[in-house]
Amino acid sequence: MGQLVFAAKVTHIPRMVLSEGPGPLHGCRDDAVQGLQQIGERLMASGAETVVILDTHWLSNAAYHVNAWDEFQGVFTSSEFPTQIEAMPFDHVGHPELARALAAKATERGVATLAHERGTLGLEYGTLVPMHFMKLHRRVKVVSVSGWLAFSTIDESRRVGAAFREAIEALPGKVALVASGSLSHRIHDNAVVFDRPYEISDEFNRQCDLRALELWQAGRWAEFCAMLPGYSRACTGEGWMHDTAMLLGALGWDGYQGRAEIVTPYFVASGTGQVNVVLPVS
């Protein structure tokens, strides 16, 4: 019936929003912007009718959560970075049926996951920024999933991702799955963060990020999956990299055989390691 047709791991750095406007930062993150645009084009070419975004800016302290509302319209200003993402308009269509199915299947597989149908539950910028730069708008439906699980385990997220694949394949339609978050995510200390926008916060983190990408490109997923729990903690992975665990859970975890295609080469943003990557779906 249904089919997972496209998968990617993407950046959502706020500086991309600043780079769109006039001023000294205009064009400063064209590499990331162009990468997201390319991923958006490829997502549409895959025939995907819905994109499920695993959002590392949606923090959950208990259970996993899925936004099952049907319309998302408004203007977004980030409470975290109000000087970088200010008054960004958005207009998207949801997919309540798929959202409910994702939550139900993950719960059935033993991980409490709740679907919320309420217009007062907004979208976070881990969803809004990629949708904006992929230029998807109302061209596809969107389902946002909490991707920052403060007290969950990588294995639980793996199981949730596998359950999502089951739910996607049980309903009619073609679906894309996008993990939205960085690799290492140790932002610079406050005293220097504005002075070092393009420098890594810890060389150890960069080396771990680069090694992870080598494994991805070589298709050595068993090694990466074994490394992921320790890597996510040692390098302060964004959202503890639960988005990555869910994505790989949906793709087959350590049995996945695809080789990552890097669309935007590894880059640094305010101390963090970033990349845009497409993962082929078998």
CATH topology: Protocatechuate 4,5-dioxygenase, Chain B
Do you know the CATH architecture?
3-Layer(aba) Sandwich
Classify the helix fraction into a percent range.
Answer: 25-40%
Number of helical segments? 8
Report the principal-axis shape: globular
Largest sheet: 8 strands, mixed
Mean pLDDT: 97
Strand arrangement, major sheet: 4-5-7-2-8-1-10-9
Kindly report how far apart the N and C termini lie: 16 Å
**The top level CATH class name:** Alpha Beta
State the CATH superfamily name.
Answer: LigB-like
> How many independent structural domains?
1
Could you please describe the fold and organization of this structure?
Helices cover 36% and strands 26% of the residues. The relative contact order is 0.21. It contains eight helices and ten strands. With 282 residues, the chain is of the alpha/beta class. It has helices spanning 15-20, 30-45, 96-108, 125-133, 154-170, 203-218, 221-234, 242-251, and strands spanning 3-10, 50-60, 64-67, 71-76, 88-94, 113-116, 141-149, 174-180, 261-269, 272-278. It has a single domain (3-278), classed as Protocatechuate 4,5-dioxygenase, Chain B.
